[in-house]
């Protein structure tokens, strides 16, 4: 547009420019030009917004400029997904969140998740930039691939060790916090640096001077031995940034999803008895003393709680996720999906998770998809960490959550301890949200020690 205007001005002679200047600065001329711009914009907007096909893809019509369909979607996300999936099919375009996006569901999600040119990190940063919030450097300093490697190399393979530590801490929390008001903990980077700096210095010193020194088994030691900070970054700053990222991601997701799971158990109190019975049966089958404390919940024992795992998967399948998991297409040339929809470089694609979690017509249909059936997945080879087209809670493909095994280990350990140690008694109705903005249910309850 700028080049066009420049060329237009260059072609005008001085007399033409003088006449145009008088017209623009006159009252009638100014009003006329403004009205022409407005009418032209309105015409072009309605011409564009009323299109039913966009680059080979059906399109949801809308009338509100700028806002598009966001207000309609947020008013009833479930109805929006179901209506336009029924009318337009599994791939359609819609003006959501201030821009035109492609919404994908059904088996077409594989073409997004498995294509290396769809970048989830770029997509999610447009919605919520955790690096900016936690002041943890740039993508160049901490590439997603490096963080994935840290999780898959130093965290997941040692779940058995970390589970014992987790159980010990949770047991202590049950003893010390239950029935009391939990203090508010204010964490700052300076405090974290002060906490780990002497530990790091001691470990580096011991590694240099003592060949027989027994190395600790934890993520901090793995980072010291295997990770190298960028040239412009101090070692302590680098370690604190990585630890902050891991803590932030783990706490946010684990707390939120454990809360949703516990509310599902409160909504269906009979689940508590089933899970308690399952614990007793597994403990007896393993030849363990039923009077042992919660420390008997090793990783191997937790993996045998198939009913608990099914409750987790069903809870997260039913969670109020609708059109989400944004991906930016960073390919250099347009991409055509198998249904004919064209994705241009820089376009955003969102996943209709709600539809995929409730297949109704496809061959992999989930029966009674709108009902919460806690033991739906028992003996179905569909563990809570197993991703697929019908279960996108942890994503899929190259951007499937690398920490999902650790996350589920935490959630299931917390739930198992509470089932063993406590009673959950609902006090009034339990309400699960249907809007897409908040996933946290509401309802009062009493938690008592057994």
Automatic annotation (TrEMBL):
PROSITE patterns for the chain: CYTOCHROME_P450 (PS00086)
InterPro entries on file: Cyt_P450, Cyt_P450_CS, Cyt_P450_E_grp-IV, Cyt_P450_sf
Cofactor(s), names only, from the UniProt record: heme
Keyword field: Heme, Iron, Metal-binding, Monooxygenase, Oxidoreductase
Matching PANTHER family: CYTOCHROME P450, P450, PUTATIVE (EUROFUNG)-RELATED
Family to which this protein belongs: Belongs to the cytochrome P450 family.
Record protein name field: Cytochrome P450
């Amino acid at each position: 547009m700028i080049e066009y205007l420049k060329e237009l001005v260059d072609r005008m002679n001085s007399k033409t420019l003088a006449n145009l200047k008088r017209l623009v600065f006159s009252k009638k001329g100014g009003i006329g030009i403004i009205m022409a711009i407005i009418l032209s914009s309105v015409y072009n907007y309605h011409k564009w917004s009323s299109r039913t096909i966009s680059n080979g893809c059906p399109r949801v019509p809308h009338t509100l400029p700028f806002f598009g369909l966001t207000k309609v979607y947020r008013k009833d996300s479930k109805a929006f997904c179901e209506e336009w999936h029924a009318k337009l099919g599994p791939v359609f375009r819609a003006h959501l969140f201030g821009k035109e996006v492609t919404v994908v569901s059904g088996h077409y999600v594989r073409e997004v998740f498995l294509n290396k040119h769809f970048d989830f990190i770029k997509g999610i940063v447009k919605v919520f930039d955790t690096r900016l919030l936690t002041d943890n450097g740039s993508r160049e300093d901490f590439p997603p691939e490096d963080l994935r490697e840290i999780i898959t190399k130093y965290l997941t393979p040692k779940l058995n060790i970390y589970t014992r530590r987790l159980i010990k801490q949770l047991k202590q929390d049950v003893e010390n916090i239950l029935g009391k008001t939990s203090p508010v903990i204010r964490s700052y980077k300076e405090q974290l640096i002060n906490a780990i700096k002497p530990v790091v210095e001691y470990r580096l010193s011991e590694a240099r001077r003592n060949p027989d020194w027994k190395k600790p088994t934890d993520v901090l030691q793995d980072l010291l031995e295997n990770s190298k900070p960028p040239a412009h970054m101090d070692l302590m700053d680098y370690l604190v940034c990585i630890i902050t990222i891991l803590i932030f991601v783990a706490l946010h997701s684990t707390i939120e999803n454990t809360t949703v799971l516990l509310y599902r158990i409160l909504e269906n109190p009979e689940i508590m008895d089933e899970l308690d019975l399952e614990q007793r049966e597994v403990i007896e089958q393993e030849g363990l003393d039923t009077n042992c404390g919660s420390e008997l919940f090793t990783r191997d024992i937790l993996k045998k709680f198939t009913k608990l795992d099914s409750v987790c998967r069903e809870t997260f399948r039913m969670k109020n996720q609708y059109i989400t998991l944004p991906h930016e297409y960073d390919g250099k040339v347009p991409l055509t999906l198998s249904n004919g929809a064209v994705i241009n470089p820089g376009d955003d694609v969102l996943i209709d998770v709600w539809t995929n979690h409730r297949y109704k017509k496809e061959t992999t249909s989930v029966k009674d998809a709108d009902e919460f059936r806690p033991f739906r997945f028992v003996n179905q080879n569909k563990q809570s960490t197993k991703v697929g087209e019908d279960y996108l809670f942890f994503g899929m493909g190259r951007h499937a959550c690398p920490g999902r095994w650790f996350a589920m280990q935490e959630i299931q350990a917390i739930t198992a301890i509470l089932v063993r140690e406590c009673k959950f008694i609902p006090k009034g109705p339990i309400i699960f949200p249907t809007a897409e903005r908040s996933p946290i249910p509401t309802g009062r309850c009493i938690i008592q020690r057994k």
